[in-house]
Amino acid sequence: NKQVILNNHVSGFPKESDMSMTSSTIELKVPHDSNGVLVKNLYLSCDPYMRPRMKKLEGSYVESFKPGSPISGYGVAKVLDSGHPGFKKGDLVWGMTGWEEYTLIATPQSLFKIQHTDVPLSYYTGILGMPGMTAYAGFYEVCSPKPGEYVFISAASGAVGQLVGQFAKLLGCYVVGSAGSKGKVDLLKNKFGFDEAFNYKEEEDLNAALKRYFPEGIDIYFENVGGKMLDAVLLNLRLRGRIAVCGMISQYNLDKPEGVYNLMTLISKRIRMEGFLVLDYYHLYPKYLEMIIPHIKEGKIVYVEDTAEGLESAPPALIGLFSGRNVGKQVVAVACE
Ligand code: NDP
């Protein structure tokens, strides 16, 4: 059983040498006193929240990875054997699994059974999985959006951002995204239908850039990056603006988070800034599927993935998230059904 293990707790930017490939033996059967499931992993998901898990965490909603043990994360898998009444051999599932070829999942209650198989299976790491639910809950439940509002999204071409922008367009909002390369800016405008997009790395003054795209100000900011971008947005919000704090990837590799200086605008502009975790919204998953599956089939929502091939490519793919190497949702294809 080939595995990717974390070698050590990480500080600063993660490196490939923080992880290594190893292999162990595994019996391809569930032990008879277990109600777990044994799965063959097909696709693994690289997600930014995995970076905090590479260090020692205290009081967090997620657990640290254990040095010497396989990395865990979301994935799509096929059940090979089951000691749980809810799952049987041959079922396709998505949820928490290991970065290895085969995983014995001791608590399968949190796995989702895949019902729709006439869409790419890898979508269950993205649009039909955790990032999809994040975009859906974050936009519709946290942002309180209304047609015609001005919406700004950072890390807009990524797994979550590309969907938030398309949801906002479907609702009739004016949508602008920021991303880190010309290719990504083109994607935002030409593939995802954003009204405007800009490369934040080419802007010396983010405040001026936002004023250019939002002369009347921003109603909704879908926050994925934090730091300087957040500070600039705070100067450009409209009265009763909203900030959905989804993530702050620019801060994840810093020992000390950067200062944010313009928070007082929250008071004068009566702004609501709300953090959220997708974990609190999974009860909406069936409702989300009902909405999103027809949209995918009718081509009303598109999804761009960046697929790395083979378990060996998982460490560089994960690290690539923090320099923006991924174009769209970063997936690792591990095996065929
Ligand atoms: P993406 O697919 O967007 O990948 C990460 C992207 O972040 C990179 O491609 C890069 O794009 C951008 N980035 C990396 N470093 C920086 C930096 N220093 N400054 C600005 N941008 C940077 O990831 P996801 O869509 O999966 O996640 C987006 C955000 O949502 C993350 O902050 C993540 O932690 C958060 N999240 C939160 C959840 C929740 O429950 N609250 C659940 C899931 C995700 P570029 O080239 O544009 O710089």
Automatic annotation (TrEMBL):
One of its GO terms (molecular function) is 2-alkenal reductase [NAD(P)H] activity. Its EC number is 1.3.1.74. Keywords: NADP, Oxidoreductase. Residues 37-332 form the Enoyl reductase (ER) domain. It catalyses: an n-alkanal + NAD(+) = an alk-2-enal + NADH + H(+); an n-alkanal + NADP(+) = an alk-2-enal + NADPH + H(+). GO terms for biological process: response to oxidative stress. It holds the Pfam family ADH_N_2. The keyword Oxidoreductase applies. It comes from the Eukaryota. PANTHER family: PROSTAGLANDIN REDUCTASE (PTHR43205), PROSTAGLANDIN REDUCTASE 1 (PTHR43205:SF7). Homodimer. Belongs to the NADP-dependent oxidoreductase L4BD family. This is 2-alkenal reductase [NAD(P)(+)]. The lineage of its organism: Eukaryota, Viridiplantae, Streptophyta, Embryophyta, Tracheophyta.
